[in-house]
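#onboarding

Welcome to the new folks! Below is a worked example of what a typical request in this channel looks like: someone posts a single protein sequence, and someone else replies with the predicted structure as tokens. Don't worry about understanding the tokens yet, we'll cover that in week two.

Example request:
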Amino acid sequence: MSNTVKGFDRWDLDSHISKAISDRGWEEPTEIQIEAIPHARKGRDVVGQAKTGSGKTAAFGIPAIERCEVKGKIQAIILCPTRELAVQVSEELVILQGEKGLNIETVYGGTDIEKQAKRLDAGADMVVGTPGRVIDMAKRGHLKMEDIELFCLDEADRMLDMGFFPDVLWIFERTVNREQTLLFSATFPQEVLEAAEEFLNDPVHVMSEDLEVEVPEIEQFAIKVGRANKLWALGRIIGNSGDGSQILVFTNTKRMVELIVERLGKFRFRAVGLHGDMPQNKRERVLDSFRDGSESIVVATDVAARGLDVDGITHVVNYDLPDDTEVYVHRIGRTGRMGKKGEAWSFATGAEVTLVDKICSTWGLEIPFTEPPALPDNRERDFIPRRDDWDEVSDYFGMVRVNMKIGESETTKRALIDWIVKESRIPEIAIGEVTSGDNETIVEIHVEKVAYVIDVIKGRDFLGHSLEPAIVNS
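Example response:
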């Protein structure tokens, strides 16, 4: 083929796919597409190393769509680690096939299995699914594994991390008439390498050249805050962001997306949500409104934000910290583009402070812990009220230090503990270390009991003393 042919035209793709790519506005394939598609179209087994956002869905999706015909029986299956990713991959395949007419079905847990089964029985040509639900469908006879000719495993390393690899191997072993296998992963732990060696036939190994993660040069801050006051801190950031700001808030679940949008609305902050269960057309509307500035606050999960390319984002807020340090880098990379100023704020509960340390050590970052932005000069009341949150003053083990005005010469630790247990009617295990000084005693009390204990002690005297209990913040 002549090297003068550029873009996707170089491959002379199925006309339906070519038109769909053109309609989408794609001009040049990504690195992983250039490396993987020619081999996969020839029927070769492919092991691809590529991270999220590299265009790998099209890298395996285009050859898979070309291979399948409208037959009403399953010819290809794509396994994904999460429901959100399965939905996203399926939506991408539907767009890529254009008007070819393949019936592409998605199966995943957490929803009505009977409805999914009926759609499979009606005749699916391709299936995208999570391992557990695929096994359920196979055991019930709705998904005939022996019909599958092409098997694709997406994000194999995440499958391993999430404990799904035994399920993946169960499915592998039952695709007895499999003619082609495609395996994609950002990293290759030993178990993934062994599976590739066992199940793939003379595979070609390809990789994206953009695996290096670039850490954007933006201002980064962390706020130590209890779960109950994350919304208060978010209100401070939004209230100080200034006109024309565009704020992207990340949380780890679609339920939290909905809750944050609802709660912000109660305090007159308009926000819109973005998560994997939303219809594609609705997600596109949200993204378009964010791009043109008609919406200024978007709350999203990581999966839903894939492909979110908005140059004007000024603030990224990690309402929930991601478990994966690389996800943190991808998140904050949404801001500070095109040389513009950007800020990234991360909320960390007491137990999550070590996560911030891990991010810093992994990527060589400095993320200072700081207070939330102060109230603007012309404002006296908080945008969102601060709540009492004992988690903010508890240690890693959930203990809160309470100062009591009684010295070691006036009582014994044992007597004080027995009195607190008796008066408060709490189990003794809820009391931790007791440290006595000349004029005061520090008692550790579990976070779940501390508010009640303080209320009880405030109203009663111990050996004729008012203990004046007070939280020790340091």
